[in-house]
Amino acid sequence: MKRRLLIAGNWKMNLTLPDAETLARDVALATPESIDVALFPPFPWLTPVKDALAGSAVKIGAQNCHWEPSGAFTGEVSASMLAGICDFILAGHSERRHVFGESDDVVARKVAAIVKAGLRPILCVGETLDERRAGGAAAVVTRQLASGFGDLSAADVSVVAIAYEPVWAIGTGVAATTRDAQDMCATVRRWLADRFGDIGAGAKVLYGGSMTGDNARELLSQPDVDGGLVGGASLKADSFSAIVAAGESVAAM
């Protein structure tokens, strides 16, 4: 049975407050009941966007958090502080790993902190172009999975979603082929099933990396792709709504 789709819009460090509120309201109007939709605004806009989404089924997430619940960490925000505001928090996005130097261990601590705070992590995994060309893509992804799930019990696994995002396809306009996306999402699911049994096999696995309204339906139709982590296309209502509409059509199949 096809798992319920999740389309997540990661706004990154973009949008003014008025634009964020308008976009949130437009997304809420275009969201069907048959799939899940979540928006990930920058930290300052979390509460205003949550207010703009009031009464809708659209969920809200944060783009990052610190692994400690509190302390002398100037400029950081803990997962426990985000409880009550957010439904999801991203952990290990490729920009956090490759721009800000977050290690597998740091990502694992964040995943565990998010679960402990009662929220749902979306653990991001993916390889660089050099790693893929060297034939090491699957090894990189499974290493990141082993670390990210290292501090979790089997009971925790059901709340974690995974986003496969090939680093070379993020923000470049170059998407992985449908076969690339399906093969790696299947690799992720096999690893989870081997580690956690049926609970792992049922986890939600998203594809992230230049998903658009033009390629979304084909990607979302794959048996092991349960949704998308959308970047640039989530910043405009028409492009994001086209992806949501593609998800709705797949859910109806």
Describe this structure in a few short sentences.
40% of the residues lie in helices and 15% in strands. It is an alpha/beta fold.
Could you describe the 3D structure shown?
With 253 residues, the protein is α/β, with parallel strands linked by helices. It has a single domain (6-251), classed as Aldolase class I (TIM Barrel), CATH 3.20.20.70. Helices cover 40% and strands 15% of the residues. The chain is built from eleven helices and eight strands. It has helices at residues 17-29, 46-52, 79-82, 94-98, 104-116, 129-133, 137-148, 178-196, 198-201, 216-220, 237-251, and strands spanning 6-10, 36-40, 59-62, 88-91, 120-125, 161-164, 204-208, 227-230. The chain has an eight-stranded parallel beta barrel with strand order 1-2-3-4-5-6-7-8, surrounded by five helices. α1 (17-29) runs parallel beside α2 (46-52). The longest helix is centred in the last third of the chain and has 19 residues, at 178-196.
Mean pLDDT: 94
Residue fraction in strands = 5-15%
Q: Give the radius of gyration.
A: 17 Å
Which sheet architecture does the biggest sheet show? 8 strands, parallel, barrel
CATH architecture: Alpha-Beta Barrel
C-alpha geometry: globular
Number of helices: 11
Structural class: alpha/beta
| Proportion in helices | 40-55%
**Count of distinct structural domains:** 1
Largest sheet strand order:
1-2-3-4-5-6-7-8
Unreliable residue runs:
none
- By CATH, the topology is TIM Barrel
What is the CA–CA distance across the termini?
A: 11 Å
